[in-house]
Request: fold
Amino acid sequence: MTTTLWRNARLATLAPLPGGEPWGWIGHGALLTEGDTIRWVGGEAALPAGLQAERDVDLGGALLTPGLVDCHTHLVYGGQRAREFELRLQGASYEQIARAGGGIRSTVAATRAAGNEALYAAARERALALMREGVTTIEIKSGYGLSLEHEARCLRVARRLGRELPLTVRTTCLAAHALPPEFDGQPDAYIDAVCAWLPVLHGEGLIDAVDAFCEAIAFSPAQTRRVFDAAQALGLPVKLHAEQLSDSGGAALAASYGALSCDHLEWLSAGGIGAMAAAGTVAVLLPGAFYFLRETRLPPVRTLRDAGVPIAIASDHNPGSSPGLSLLLMLSMGCTFFRLTPEEALRGATINAARALGLTDRGMLQAGQRADFAAWDLEHPNELAYWFGRNPCRRVVAGGLERDA
Ligand code: DI6
Ligand code: FE
Reply:
């Protein structure tokens, strides 16, 4: 395995260092990788004497951070919903459009009509856009197929992205996203079907986690519970779209299953926060959906922080509520809208985002972690949340290999 010494960098390691420096800061740093793993990180002056690396890369004083992790996306779908955006601008609400059969259902129709190659090509373009900003790991949810055949197709596209791009892809089955037309008026029968599909999809190796949309316009807590029971029986971790538009107690329910994350959370209650803190569930905040749906209710960031709940941020990329492809913009919005600090925002898109996916091998620059990192043309890591509409990413290393995007 090739060993590489990456020298002359300023490191925001995000690791807990002995001095407790903010950002895990190392001013004149170096990093040794072997294959896809980081073997050593520290000050360049402290490099072990006699250390021999096959390659030596001078990073020219660049700022280095862990590779970014987008822990909540719905990247695989057909069509787009710009017309619905126009209707919402004229006063229609997201709920009204959903209840009138538009919204998610219109994307389901477009997704089912799209061929495998078209679905793959569109999702690949979106993944490349995220990657250009230093993203090295993404989660991709299904949820626009809503039948065994079409959920499987979308999840296969997600797996193929992970095979063909220099990117880690984690897949989540979100079949309990909306009621498909063929189950109109029969949500419980649809949940029965979803529970029967999970072993099939899992048997094909297509899912890493199971999610549901627990909301008045989607599925009830009781229906969510049934999906989670089926996931648990397969040993699959769960996560939940919870408390986005109302407080249905979904977060506490998910936490009782040891959920990896609860996502959205604008309407999260104190009880939900306590349950998440006790279970170690990550709070994934999605400022893109908050922005695009012009929400006004803020997630309870201060209480989450005080309760010690790890906070992540993600793009929630999807055609209906967050058609954005910039995780850096989410860092900016996480600070301006939700009052995260820039350091919390970066931790939210690295270490805490990795935790929201159940990954402990990435998110920090530390010996033993996966060699995923990004070099930025910036003086200070707080600039990652400061600029918007600018991409300062200069180089990306994923699994120890430098890639183009
Ligand atoms: N919450 C969301 O914001 C997205 N899905 C979900 O459960 C929206 C999906 C869409 O409108 O297509
Ligand atoms: Fe979502």
Notes: The radius of gyration is 21 Å. The chain has two domains: 3-66+364-403, 68-356. The chain is about 35% helix and 25% strand.
